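queue> pop job 88
queue> type: inverse folding (structure -> sequence)
queue> payload:
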């Protein structure tokens, strides 16, 4: 056996990389983790420029509608105004705290953290800051990065990474894209006070989500004030004295203060040296791995967004724990973990939120054949007094042959919080009969999932 400096060398300090490094070190093996200075920082996209700050800003954006709705419950007086600088400073302080926690978690378990950009030298060697480090196993966990297409004026656009520290606050914001990141930022900045226009070249936003959910949330976002244009795309951008002049493919023009391009993310593989080592890559550079997260180079592994499979933080965390069990065995007294990609729940923090798990109606019909749909749309109890016109959508997709609930979808306040609990039931194979026999908590929105009795279609 050759002598290596480390048993595991992790390239990337995002959620998946940190979890793998920490879990491996707890097994007593020698672990190093390299995170490049000037990148997102420990915790990766999620902690620094993704899930966490985005959710904090989503909370902030909800207050504008909450202040307005409070009048319906007897609260009087003018709503306060947003101090953008205060919000940014408070967010930054919290993210710095989380970065420190991630570092502490690593160092407390004995992980050697190396600040610098790592490049693969060969199948068992990594170079960082001019020094080489050998390892029995190398893990690529560098995540993804926003993609902006080539066009005239490309240098003038912002990506999701830039949105948290904008100065000044954009009074007029154009969001280009129709995925969950685009829809979330459109909702957030609309709530914070921007005049938001959203352009998407497709027929409807949120491709891949249940069709009813897509149409429903689009209508709710428009009601809330987002100026949504479908079948629209940008030809060029130019800076003028009036602001950013955005020329569209149909010949029309928009003048705004800032343009966010949220048109997808690509694996973060630039400069890693994957090609030189012979690691096979797929579309847009995604690292190709087998069921054990192993590349075609046996000593090199990859997980999380860099593999471009399911780009969700909890998925990367789950993959990291499975990989560590595979390489170094499970923790004492615990079974070896497995990873299933079925019935993964997720949320979209639009206003209102989306929560979803399992199959869309179209996917379910293709996979299972006959399915029955249960659907409910209503005004939540809160809005009987608030004056808001917001409505809630809840939907179940049930496989006829087994009565199993194979799809569960919601658009409404706290949808992610509600769907997370039901995701456990779906994972356990709960049937519609089990849902029907479960007593609801009244009065709640969530009880609707266990009180829907009449199907709306086969």
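queue> result:
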């Amino acid at each position: 056996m050759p002598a290596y400096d480390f048993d595991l060398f992790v390239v990337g300090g995002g959620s998946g990389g940190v979890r793998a490094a920490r879990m491996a070190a707890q097994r007593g093996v020698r672990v190093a983790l390299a995170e490049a200075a000037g990148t997102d920082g420990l915790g990766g996209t999620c902690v620094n420029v993704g899930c966490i700050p985005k959710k904090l800003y989503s909370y902030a954006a909800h207050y504008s509608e909450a202040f307005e709705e409070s009048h319906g419950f007897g609260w009087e007086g003018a709503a306060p105004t947003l101090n953008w600088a205060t919000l940014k400073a408070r967010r930054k302080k919290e993210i710095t705290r989380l970065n420190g926690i991630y570092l502490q978690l690593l160092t407390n378990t004995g992980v050697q953290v190396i600040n610098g950009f790592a490049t693969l030298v060969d199948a068992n060697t990594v170079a960082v800051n001019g020094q080489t480090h050998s390892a029995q196993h190398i893990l690529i966990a560098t995540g993804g990065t926003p993609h902006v297409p080539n066009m005239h004026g490309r240098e003038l656009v912002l990506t999701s990474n830039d949105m948290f520290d904008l100065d000044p606050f954009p009074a007029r914001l154009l969001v280009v894209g129709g995925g969950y990141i685009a829809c979330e930022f459109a909702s957030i900045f609309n709530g914070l006070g921007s005049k938001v226009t959203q352009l998407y070249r497709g027929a409807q936003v949120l491709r891949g989500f249940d069709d009813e959910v897509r149409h429903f949330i689009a209508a709710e976002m428009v009601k809330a004030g987002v100026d949504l244009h479908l079948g629209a795309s940008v030809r060029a951008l130019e800076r003028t004295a009036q602001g950013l002049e955005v020329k569209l493919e149909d010949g029309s023009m928009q003048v705004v203060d800032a343009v966010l391009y949220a048109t997808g993310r690509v694996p973060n593989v630039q400069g890693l040296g994957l090609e030189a080592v012979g690691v096979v890559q797929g579309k847009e550079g995604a690292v190709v791995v087998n069921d054990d997260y192993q590349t075609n180079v046996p000593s090199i592994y990859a997980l999380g967004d860099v593999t471009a499979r399911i780009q969700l933080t909890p998925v990367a965390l789950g993959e990291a724990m499975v990989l560590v069990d595979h390489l170094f065995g499970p923790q004492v007294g615990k079974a070896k973990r497995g990873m299933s990609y079925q019935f993964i729940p997720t949320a979209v923090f639009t206003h209102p939120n989306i929560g979803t798990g399992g199959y869309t109606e179209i996917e379910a019909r293709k996979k299972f054949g006959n399915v029955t749909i249960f659907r409910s749309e209503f005004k939540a109890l809160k809005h009987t007094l608030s004056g808001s016109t917001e409505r809630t959508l809840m939907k179940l997709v049930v496989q006829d042959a087994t009565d199993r609930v194979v799809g569960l979808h919601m658009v409404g306040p706290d949808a992610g919080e509600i769907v997370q609990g039901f995701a456990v039931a779906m994972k356990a194979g709960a049937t519609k009969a089990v849902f029907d026999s479960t007593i609801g908590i009244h009065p709640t929105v969530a009880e609707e999932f266990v009180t829907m009795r009449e199907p709306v279609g086969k």
